[in-house]
Every structure is written in structure tokens, then in C-alpha cells.
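Good morning C.,

I know you're traveling, so I'll keep this short. The sequence:
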Amino acid sequence: MTKKSTYVTIALGVMALSIAACSSPSAVERGFGEAVRSNTKAQVYDPATLTAPSTEPVEGTDGQRMENVMEGLRGRQGNADGVAEPIVINVGD
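The C-alpha cells, ready to paste straight into the viewer:
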């Protein structure tokens, strides 16, 4: 095999890979993210707000209840000490 034929073979291989990379997406790639979009859509109480959201502030809630909610959210601080512990995986006996 000559040097020229080696270069031609490499060039043809690169061109074949380039064409294969431009192929149409697979069934998995076409549906990528559909589950997230479906779940988000199912969680919306009023679908009209997705296209025209309200600019009005939320009103009509109990102040004590909202204070309890905020304290609960602020109090959920994770424990960073356990992050540095090693992970042990036992396989077999």
C-alpha cells in the first residue's frame, strides 16, 4: 500500500464518518425532553397562564402560614459533613 492510497483511505473514512454524523435523529433523540415537558404541563393548574402569565401579586393567604412555610424552607439546610465520607461497594462475599 502506498502512502497516497493510505491518505485516500483515511480521507474516505473521515468523509464517511462525517456523513454518518449528519444522519437523522433516532427515536430516543426525537423524544428527548418530552417527559419533562409533559410533567410540567400536567402540573399547571391553569394552562392559560403559560401563554399569558399574570403580573398581579399573590394575595389572600394567611401570614402565619406563609411565615411557617418560609421558616421550613430556610431550616432545611443539608449536612455537609457526610459528603466527605468514602463510598464503599462490596461485590461478592
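Safe travels,
E.
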